[in-house]
Design brief:
Elements lengths: L4 H5 L10 E4 L2 E15 L12 E13 L3 E4 L5 H9 L22 E4 L6 E6 L13 E10 L2 H8 L2 E5 L3 E5 L3 E13 L7 E10 L5 H5 L5 E9 L22 H4 L8 E3 L12 E8 L2 H5 L17 H4 L5
Antiparallel strand pairs: 1-2, 2-3, 2-10, 3-6, 4-5, 6-7, 7-14, 8-9, 10-11, 11-12, 12-13, 12-14
């Protein structure tokens, strides 16, 4: 099928993107559900603007891929392992420096993503997505938690109360749902010298953009170049990233993809994202996925957002 051919045949019928080849230039490595959440700053029960946002989270739940069995970190490593000890896998600012097991993911566990749950809980460093008007400007993010249990993510989105020696009792509010849809990870120009990868998505909710979505650059649909950072290359003054102990420790076959001292790689395979402490860059490529690829993503509602306040998701208003 040529690029855009199906859409031209019947523009009223969306084409659900499947894993496999689209054209000789595009290959779908993975597809699944995507969710966006934001958390108000500590002590705030409502948000009225970007300055009151503490964190922007992306949650990816793959449903199919070019490989039916993928590799993720050993469940005894990172936050995934720490939760077994304390039962509270919160991914919040208040506890980010004190949770037991604050280490990057390592080891290997096999997961059949079409039959088993696999969820990645991701933090965006700038608390917003790259705007399409700033193509070429990288936005840093990292994988905070990887798990095979939906309840772990729901727990991470909840609020919590804690005490500090300097400020006394503090309340970290629960996250708010800001977007829900579908995503794909695509390999562009496979086999070519300039092969690169894209993360694309399209929202199902909210029905229309509101102030939270516009402020956080959560467009109706978007395409980003995505690159994985080498955890073994020393930091420089322009890019500090996570502390060394929090960085991912990839298996030898994944780490070997970097070769000798290469700083960044395309996201190929997506297994890199299955390790806590995996750092990456998103670079805006397009806000018209259908126009870029010739296909349209379709989405269905999920129950994952039931944990969070959903006013931003359904009404497009701050909460």
């Amino acid at each position: 099928m040529g690029e855009g051919e199906e859409s031209k045949k019947n523009p009223e019928a969306p084409v659900e993107i499947q894993c496999g080849i689209i054209t000789n230039r595009w290959w779908v490595q993975e597809r699944g559900e995507i969710f966006f959440f934001y958390r108000p700053k500590v002590g705030r029960e409502e948000v009225h603007g970007a300055e009151e946002v503490q964190r922007l989270y992306i949650v990816l739940r793959p449903e199919s891929g070019e490989r039916s069995v993928v590799e993720k970190q050993d469940p005894a490593s990172g936050k995934e392992g720490a939760k077994k000890d304390d039962g509270h896998p919160h991914a919040s600012e208040s506890s980010s420096d004190s949770v037991a097991g604050e280490e990057g993911g390592h080891g290997i566990q096999k997961v059949k993503i079409e039959d088993e749950v696999l969820v990645r809980f991701i933090v965006m460093g700038r608390k917003r997505l790259p705007p399409p008007t700033q193509k070429g400007r990288p936005f840093w993010g990292y994988v905070e938690m990887v798990t095979t249990k939906i309840e772990d993510v729901k727990s991470a989105l909840q609020g919590e109360d804690y005490n500090t020696s300097t400020r006394g009792h503090r309340h970290n509010p629960p996250a708010r749902a800001a977007g829900e849809g579908v995503y794909g990870i695509l390999r562009h120009n496979p086999g070519g010298r300039k092969m690169h990868t894209h993360l694309i998505y399209k929202l199902e909710f909210p029905p229309e953009d509101g102030d939270p979505q516009e402020t956080l650059n959560i467009d109706r649909e978007a395409s980003f170049l995505i690159q994985i950072k080498n955890p073994e290359v020393p930091e420089n003054s322009q890019f500090r990233g996570l502390q060394r102990k929090r960085k991912a420790s990839f298996p030898a076959h994944l780490q070997g993809e970097f070769g000798r001292r290469r700083r960044f790689l395309p996201l190929d395979p997506p297994d890199f994202l299955n390790y806590e402490g995996c750092e990456f860059l998103l670079i805006a490529a397009s806000d018209d996925v259908e126009g870029e690829l010739g296909v349209e993503l379709t989405a269905e509602c999920s129950d994952l957002v039931e944990t969070a306040s959903i006013a931003p998701l359904l009404k497009g208003t701050w909460a």
